[in-house]
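Exercise 7. Given the encoded structure of a 332-residue chain, write a plausible sequence.
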């Protein structure tokens, strides 16, 4: 096993981790970015490459994959070492205040650590109906990788939050018909998105709850029961997309040799994004502090906050660039 030494180790290669790595490069900190998936982008790239994202400043309606591509281009301007397909097995704080980072492939040392794991491992909330498991990956989906796979189909989207609405609006231009099924009359999405949905050709079936699946060779029929009523409907479609949210956990963190303070399963951080352990910072959806908003946009602000704070701790005499315009970056 090889051993190398870094100023900063960023664990997690989603949008927050990628931007933190870029910011380390801007400040010429020796950094490594470790991601367990074989590619950068985290959940955004793995689950929602064609979903449109509206909360990133200056990039309205950018797709998940476009956002990750932009972040990759940005990271190339001030590159750091990247280790993909590598899971961090343990982080140990040594007596001298540095950290030993261990994976199955190698051991490295780091003066500081930034945890950007989001909510950790994630699994979709499954559709609890007989026969759903047999349809999974064929006519029943929990993720939409490429919308063109649904071209010309009749598609039922189950769910009532922002993601379900986004999926329905994303599929509408390519699908033959899109039906959004929700157990309430009101949707949980942002007002603007809900208004856009109601003005679209998407068929809204509310308040209905799926009760039964009947499969045929080339279609699936969903038995629907109207809430607080005996009324029932039948809807035959080619594909079903279920978006009831995800369950997630950061079980990997509990195996590390760090006793990190947490609140409601989220890492507690201060105003500099430092955790209860000096030298360990955390950013993104997996952290909590007063006023925390779980948005990509918020994580993009947390990354430079953490990097700037740890850089001042590591190199108090080093002059850090205050504004990006003073960093003299040459665009490739």
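Solution.
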């Amino acid at each position: 096993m090889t051993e190398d030494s870094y100023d900063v180790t960023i664990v997690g290669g989603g949008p927050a981790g990628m931007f933190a790595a870029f910011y380390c490069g801007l400040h010429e900190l020796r950094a490594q970015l470790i991601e367990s998936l074989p590619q950068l982008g985290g959940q955004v790239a793995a689950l929602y490459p064609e979903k449109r994202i509206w909360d990133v400043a200056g990039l309205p309606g950018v797709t998940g994959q476009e956002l990750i591509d932009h972040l990759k281009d940005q990271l190339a301007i001030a590159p750091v070492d990247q280790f993909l397909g590598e899971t961090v097995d343990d982080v140990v704080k040594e007596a001298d205040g540095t950290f030993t980072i261990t994976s199955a492939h190698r051991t490295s040392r780091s003066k500081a650590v930034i945890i950007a794991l989001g909510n950790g491992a994630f699994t979709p909330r499954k559709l609890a109906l007989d026969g759903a498991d047999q349809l999974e990956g064929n006519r029943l989906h929990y993720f939409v990788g490429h919308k063109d796979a649904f071209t010309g189909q009749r598609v039922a989207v189950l769910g009532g939050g922002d993601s379900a609405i986004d999926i329905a609006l994303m599929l509408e231009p390519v699908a033959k018909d899109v039906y959004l099924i929700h157990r309430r009359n009101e949707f949980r999405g942002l007002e603007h998105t809900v208004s856009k949905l109601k003005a679209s050709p998407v068929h809204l079936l509310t308040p209905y709850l799926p009760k039964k699946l009947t499969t045929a060779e080339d279609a699936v029929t969903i038995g629907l029961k109207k809430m607080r009523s005996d009324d029932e409907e039948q809807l035959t479609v080619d594909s079903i997309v279920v978006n009831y949210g995800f369950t997630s956990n950061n079980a990997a963190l509990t195996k590390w040799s760090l006793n990190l303070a947490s609140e409601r399963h989220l890492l507690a951080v201060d105003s500099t994004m430092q955790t209860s352990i000096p030298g360990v910072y955390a950013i993104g959806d997996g952290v909590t502090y007063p006023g925390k908003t779980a948005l990509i946009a918020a994580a993009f602000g947390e990354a430079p906050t953490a990097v700037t704070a740890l850089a001042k701790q590591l190199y108090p005499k080093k002059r850090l660039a205050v504004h990006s315009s003073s960093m003299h970056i040459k665009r490739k």
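Remark. The first strand starts at residue 3 and ends at 11. Students should compare their own answers with the one above.
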